[in-house]
Queue: 4 jobs
Job 1
Amino acid sequence: MTNGDLFSEAYRFYWLCCTSILMHTPHLNEHKSNIRSLDFSPDGRLLASGSLDGGVILWDVETGQPLETLLASNRLVLCVDFSPDGTQLATGSTDGTVIIWPVE
């Protein structure tokens, strides 16, 4: 998968999530359930995806490969958001849990 393919799929997901339409895309299929939230790191190298399975995956935008899987909650992950400097990732879940993860 090329950088453009992953970007296109992520943008499509972002648009669908913003319009409250949840769909599963085969290019981001490491999650066990539908993706609910996406965010690109400020430098554009990473993509974070939060899912209804309670997981968060950090993706390498250039290769399209997952780099790390985080278990944010036993509940649905509703939002993921990189800090402005890209060194942290915040996740929010339906159980009210907010976690700040370090990003390396």
Job 2
Amino acid sequence: MFLLLLNYLIIITMVNSFDVMTNTKVSVANTTTAVLTAEARRRYALFVNDSDEVIYLSLSDTAVLNEGIRLNASGGSYEINGTNMYVGDVSAISTSGSKNLTVVFDLHIN
């Protein structure tokens, strides 16, 4: 939101609050693994690779090795927030399978 007042530009930042954060983990297979389903109420999501192997994240319902968002082993992460809002399907894939992906997300209730 912008407001021009006496030749000064005042920027008002609208801060989104979170309702209830959900913490979960997904075991990522060596085939496409659903991580989050499309949800219009999504306001935030954080994905952290909690494994010893690279995981590839896809902002779609199909994940492909060596494509998409690379989450490096032992802490590689990706965040969806107000600056890059995405409410569609999220999927992931790993080379050998059974790799932990930590997921934190918020859905707007009101």
Job 3
Amino acid sequence: MQGFGTQEVGELAERQPDPVAALIALARGHTVFCRRDVARVMMALRVEFSGQNHPVGREVHRISRTLVKRCASLIEAGRRNGSIPPGPPAKAVALAFRQCYLRTPCHAERLPKWRSS
């Protein structure tokens, strides 16, 4: 399932000079990716296999956990360099951040299309 946007969005984040820019790139890249038809496949898989002990469901869950870990690492790095203030545990913030950017494309459908740079 690596081809479902995780690599291309992740590469945008890796090119950023600091953790905050990387988090913004993840959110922006995810929104752009979700405007493509292939993103609907991942959504359908998530809905179809959620809560089931099935290899596809486990892989979808693994991808989600990996993303939360990546965001938590960026949040911790931002706290170390002072660009993100202290607060709740990084994993809790990462989960909240993920929920925000997963929902953004739903609302972005009402906005004009744009391309990432």
Job 4
Amino acid sequence: MKTRKKPRRHIGEIGVDAGLCWIGDPCYVLHAERPPSTIGRNWEEFCDLLNKGGQYPTCKQFHYELGHPGLGVVVSTGYGDGVYPVFAEFNAKAGSHPSRSSSSTLTKTSRRRRRP
């Protein structure tokens, strides 16, 4: 059975200073009232959660407060800090939204990110 390859398109770049990439909806973590306890109360607790189990490269699924997955996913870049291209796989239909089941590949670019 031949699988039809989904069109993959470069959609931008991300700068990384923590050696990590967060994939998730920012509306669930970027609000002033109360961030989800599942990500920790601060950066130190967040890093402690990532280091549990000693897995490298870091790949961690974060759950919503009610316990189901989907809050976000963190993955270490494997190459450290820098600028990484972001690609999205799109359904074959022209003008369609990105595929719900897509994959990402982090590959360090040779360009250096400018510091503000």
